[in-house]
Each structure stands twice: as structure tokens, then as C-alpha cells.
Design goal:
Layout lengths: L7 H4 L5 H27 L9 H10 L11 H15 L5 H12 L3 E9 L10 E2 L6 E12 L4 H13 L6 E7 L27 H4 L9 E2 L4 E2 L4 E9 L4 E9 L11 H4 L2 H10 L5 E5 L4 E5 L7 H12 L8 H10 L2 E4 L2 E5 L5 E5 L2 E4 L2 H15 L7 E10 L3 E11 L18 H5 L39 E14 L7 E3 L2 H4 L2 H11 L7 H10 L10 H5 L1 E5 H10 L6 H15 L14 H11 L1 E2 L2
Parallel strand pairs: 3-4
Antiparallel strand pairs: 1-2, 1-3, 5-7, 6-7, 7-8, 8-20, 9-10, 10-19, 11-12, 12-18, 13-14, 13-17, 15-16, 16-17
Length: 615
């Protein structure tokens, strides 16, 4: 929501001169510093969850809700909790408590309803359980069970608030849940729920009679491993009267390397990340379990192209689908070579080619083809009648085509002729119109006229002038036309065998073509061929470059890199290494002692020496 600006009218008011403008600016600055935030906070009192952190915290405290102290996220969570608190009104209940717990600790909580024995009702609320029994009744008590990796300093701070979020008739208790393995070690106490935090000290003396002996140490599954490869184990033992807790640290660094002999560990993501870091500047690697190492191949900085080509041609002579075959065949095609089996051919240079433009095609060359194409259009295409060809340039070309730009003058249709003006009638003399002749002499059509003397000289008639030819207007236009070159199917050339020594010029010819056509992309096929020449060929043929540039990394180097990644700033890399070490640490939970890399008996002995009372 935008901040409330109560002095906007003053800010937009007119100032007379620099002095008044300076005074206005000083007042606005002082007022904003002293009262700006406070006024804006007051504006949000109607909807506190839209206000500043101070407003949210003030109203949260007023309603007895959760006040967090988590940098960067506390205000967002408090706003969401308060807005839902306001919206639910009288419908608040355990569902709102569940909502708050989810906002605070994600899926690390559980609300359990508590039941009590009917037979032992006089001991209420001492003998409560989280499971309904045949002779139990539902109580108004609940147990808020949190995972043990929750920050319990924060839980302790928020506990009073959480207790107030439930309806008045419900009593809430908060406990940490320790997920325990080895439950079969409890012996006769198999009915015990180990995560319960009951206070057995409140039992009377009669009820304490006949309690079992202490259990063996039950190790929590919440095992922590730090960047120093120290695993922290938490264990409990109880006789249902007294409970002991112990914390034991074990350095498991020495167990990291030996597990690389196990395929299940080698396939873990943490090992993959460690190997990727070691082989970052190589082309790949393979495991060599017999020698406890990995073998990586690398391309040196200075590459001899003749050696690269010699390796690929050696493999080419042995089998068609060798490592690097695709790259070598592409190189052949780039300069017009073809291969059949392990032979290389080039077509006769006297081969005739077809040059095609749409449906028009001729033999010859590119320039003849484009010239005849346009002349044919002018002669046969009515739309091109009268076109005058101009400059022609090559726009682009590759190995199989060339694109021309043709400039031409296109005749425009003549404008329509202007209509001739009608002749004006001869003027009539007013006097003649008023006094026409009284008796005009009639002309007898039968009266012969006087003959014309043929010998009398006559004036020659003037010839009529020839009409001027119409002026043709032209418009300059241009067109792009692609000419495609292909073999002439009516006259295929014969193939000429490329000798062994000429094959060694393959890369040189590609480099020349790339320079002539100014196309660095042609060199990519050489780069790809280099990588394949330094790669391993399964048949063992042509592996001299591969074997001469191998690098070896021992299991010890992999283990050290994996341990180094435990302190990585990259969360993904760190988590992958932690999973590897955590897998080792968790073997203490295996029932079969032979499968325990971290021995339960040794840890249990250490726990016995470090035990303290757990309340």
C-alpha cells in the first residue's frame, strides 16, 4: 500500500523565490523525518497486516500472537498469521494452531490428542497416551510434538504464545520428538512410545513398583555431520522411571575413502560431484577399481593435426564405426571426398554440374545460369516484358549454392490520354442575324460548275505531323535469386581414388576452404575430430594419443575432494557430499553388526560414559 502523504498540498503549493522554496524544502524534510513514518503507521491501523513491521508487531502483541525474531522473513510470516487471525474470528481452533505451526516450522510438527485410562482416572492427567485404548477416554489435552532439529531456543520463547492459540478448554503441551531406531532393544517395554516426554517423577510409590530394568542405548536417527566429518549421535536409555541422555561425537573421516570400493557408494551424487571437480579440464574418465583410481583423458594445449589425422585414418582402415568416424566422414564431405569401405574417392574435376533456379536449370556455371535465367524471364514472362537489367552482385555463397542480387528497371504503364477539347462555335454578327438576305440565290445542283484547269499550278498539301512516341516511366527494383549447384544426373563423373599420402592433407584443405569462404564454422569439424582422436577406441587401434595423455586420480584424492565439498558454498555440492557421509554415519542403525561401519557397541560404550539425566 502506498504511503500516506498528508503534506502533498503543501509540496505542490507555489513558492515565491528561492528563499521560500528553501524554507519549504526544509520544512518538508524535517516533517517527513519526524512524523512521516508515524503518520503512515496510523494510516494502517485499520489493516495492520499491510503496515510496517512496527505496526504488525504492535497489533500482534496486542492480540497475543507470535512475535518472531527471524531476519528477512519474520515480518512476512507475522503478516500472514495476523491476517488469518483477523479473518477467522470466532472460527479459530486447532486448525489455526496447525496453520501457525506450519508457518513457523513447515512439516516439522504434529498435534496429537491425548487419551487417559478410565481405570486410572484418579491419576489424571498423569497416565496419558497418544493412542486410544479400549479403556481410555479423550481428554482436553493436546501434545504439540516438534522434530528435534527445530530451534528450541525459539520454541521456548514462543511456547506461551502457542499455548494461548488453542481454545480455552484445551491444554497444550510442547515436546521434542526423537525418532529412535533399535526399538527391539527395549525388551519387555515394547509398548513404550519413546518420543513421549512424560514426567515420571510425579508417579507415586505404588505405581513405580515393578518397573523394568534400563533399556539399552537407543540411538536417535537425527544424526548430524559437520564439515570436519564429525558425526554427532544422541542416545537415550530409560527404566520408565529415570531417563538418561548422551551425546557422542565420532570422527568418521577414515571411513570415507574405503567405501569408494563399493559400487553403491561410487554411484552417489557426492562422488560424482567430487570426480567432476577433479576432472574438470579433461574429456572424461573411467573407473579402475582394481587399482583404486579413476583414469581421465586430456587433450594437450599444443596439438599436432597430422598426428590427429593419422590416428583417425588408422582407425578408419580397421572398421567403419570407429570412435571419431562421424567427424572424419564429415571432414571428407566438407571437401567433396566420398568413402566406400576403407577407400576414399574424389569425383573427376571435369564433372558437369546442373545449376538450378526454381524449375529453370542449365549446365555451365553460376554466372551463365543467372544471366540466362533473367534473359529467359524477359523473353517469355509477360510480367517481365520491357524490363531493363541493371547491376548484378553476389550476396552470399556456400559449397552448394550462390545467391545473387539483381537490380532492374521495371516499366510503368503509360498514363491515360487527355481528352481533346470540343471546337467552339463561330460567332455570328448581330447585324447579319437581324437582317438576313431577302432573296438568296438558289443553287441548282444540276448546273455545271466551271472546270478546273488541270494545267493551272496548284499548291502542294502540307503533310500531317507524326505523333510523338509516348514517354516510358521506369521504377528501380531488385530481387534475390538463389542458384543451386548439383551433379548432372545425365553425365555422372567417374570416381578417382585418393592416395594415402593425399589423405593426410584433409585438414589443410578444410583450413584453406574456411579461409577462402571466410567461414570459421568449417573448422569445428577439426575441433571435434581432435577430441575423438584423444579418446579411447575400444578395439585398441589408434590409441597412441589417448594413452600418452592419461591422468590418474586415486581414491584418496576423490575422498579428500568429497570432504572438501562438505564446506562448499554451493548448496547442491555440499548437500551431495553430506548425503555420502551421512550414509556412512547411519550404518550404526543397522541391526546386523557386520553392516555397521560405525559400530553401535563402541558408541553405546561412549554414551554410557557420557550419560546425563534427561528431564
Amino acid at each position: 500500500m502506498d504511503a500516506l502523504n498528508v503534506i502533498a498540498p503543501y509540496q505542490q503549493s507555489h513558492t515565491n523565490g528561492d528563499t521560500e522554496a528553501a524554507l519549504q524544502a526544509v520544512f518538508i524534510q524535517v516533517f517527513t523525518q519526524l512524523y512521516g513514518d508515524k503518520i503512515n503507521d496510523l494510516n494502517h491501523y485499520g489493516m495492520p497486516h499491510f503496515g510496517s513491521l512496527n505496526v504488525v508487531e504492535r497489533f500482534t502483541k496486542q492480540d497475543g500472537l507470535v512475535v518472531l525474531r527471524r531476519p528477512s522473513v519474520d515480518d512476512k510470516i507475522m503478516r500472514i498469521i495476523y491476517s488469518n487471525w483477523s479473518a477467522l474470528a470466532s472460527k479459530r481452533g486447532l486448525s489455526f494452531l496447525a496453520f501457525v505451526l506450519q508457518m513457523l516450522w513447515g512439516d516439522q510438527w504434529e498435534i496429537k490428542r491425548l487419551f487417559h485410562s478410565i481405570e486410572l482416572a484418579n491419576l489424571y492427567p498423569t497416565v496419558t497416551t497418544v493412542e486410544r485404548l479400549d479403556d481410555s477416554f479423550l481428554t482436553s489435552r493436546i501434545l504439540i510434538s516438534l522434530d528435534s532439529d527445530v530451534d528450541f531456543a525459539e520454541v521456548s520463547y514462543l511456547a506461551p504464545t502457542l499455548s494461548r492459540l488453542v481454545p480455552a478448554n484445551v491444554v497444550a503441551q510442547i515436546t521434542a520428538e526423537q525418532r529412535l531406531e533399535g526399538i527391539d532393544r527395549i525388551g519387555v517395554a515394547v509398548a513404550m512410545m519413546p518420543f513421549m516426554t512424560a514426567n515420571f517423577s510425579k508417579f507415586d510409590s505404588d505405581y513405580k513398583a515393578g518397573l523394568p530394568a534400563f533399556t539399552e542405548w537407543m540411538v536417535s536417527t537425527n544424526i548430524a555431520v559437520n564439515h570436519n566429518v564429525i558425526a554427532t549421535y544422541i542416545g537415550y536409555k530409560t527404566d520408565l522411571k529415570t531417563t538418561y541422555r548422551a551425546t557422542v561425537n565420532r570422527d568418521i573421516r577414515a571411513l570415507v575413502q574405503p567405501q569408494l570400493a563399493n559400487l553403491a557408494y561410487r554411484n552417489m551424487n557426492g562422488v560424482t560431484k567430487a570426480v567432476e571437480a577433479l576432472t574438470a579440464n579433461t574429456m572424461g574418465f573411467e573407473w579402475d577399481p582394481g587399482n583404486q583410481r579413476i583414469i581421465a583423458s586430456k587433450v594437450p594445449e599444443n596439438v599436432d593435426l597430422d598426428q590427429v589425422l593419422n590416428v583417425l585414418l588408422t582407425r578408419f582402415n580397421v572398421r567403419p564405426d570407429f570412435v571419431g568416424s562421424e567427424e572424419l566422414y564429415e571432414a571428407f564431405e566438407t571437401i567433396g571426398w566420398v568413402h566406400e569401405g576403407n577407400q576414399v574417392y574424389i569425383y573427376d574435376p571435369n564433372q558437369t554440374y546442373l545449376y538450378t533456379i526454381g524449375s529453370f536449370s542449365i549446365t555451365g556455371n553460376y554466372d551463365d545460369a543467372i544471366a540466362l535465367y533473367f534473359q529467359d524471364k524477359i523473353d517469355t514472362d509477360p510480367d517481365w516484358s520491357g524490363v531493363i537489367l541493371g547491376a548484378r552482385t553476389v550476396e552470399s555463397e556456400d559449397l552448394e549454392s550462390r545467391t545473387y542480387k539483381q537490380v532492374y528497371l521495371f516499366p510503368l504503364p503509360p498514363p491515360p490520354p487527355e481528352p481533346e477539347p470540343e471546337p467552339e462555335p463561330e460567332p455570328v454578327d448581330p447585324e447579319d442575324a437581324e437582317n438576313p438576305p431577302e432573296n438568296p440565290e438558289p443553287v441548282d445542283p444540276e448546273t455545271p460548275t466551271e472546270p478546273t484547269d488541270p494545267e493551272a499550278p496548284t499548291e502542294p498539301a502540307e503533310p500531317e505531323p507524326e505523333p510523338e512516341p509516348p514517354v516510358i516511366q521506369y521504377e528501380e527494383r531488385s530481387i534475390l535469386v538463389e542458384v543451386v549447384e548439383s551433379f548432372n544426373p545425365d553425365r555422372l563423373a567417374s570416381k578417382i581414388l585418393v592416395p594415402e599420402n593425399e589423405r593426410l592433407t584433409l585438414f589443410t584443405q578444410i583450413q584453406t576452404l574456411a579461409a577462402d569462404f571466410e567461414d570459421p564454422g568449417m573448422l569445428e569439424v577439426i575441433d571435434s575430430a581432435i577430441i575423438k582422436a584423444y579418446s579411447k577406441e575400444p578395439t585398441g587401434t589408434g590409441n597412441q594419443l589417448y594413452t600418452a595423455n592419461l591422468i590418474y586420480f586415486s581414491y584418496a584424492q576423490i575422498a579428500n575432494k568429497l570432504i572438501e565439498h562438505l564446506g562448499s558454498a554451493n548448496a547442491e555440492v555440499k548437500a551431495a557430499s553430506e548425503a555420502y557421509v551421512y550414509k556412512i554415519a547411519r550404518t550404526i542403525l543397522e541391526n546386523n553388526a557386520a553392516n555397521q561401519l560405525v559400530k553401535y557397541a563402541e558408541v553405546a560404550q561412549a554414551m554410557e560414559a557420557a550419560k546425563v539425566l534427561s528431564y
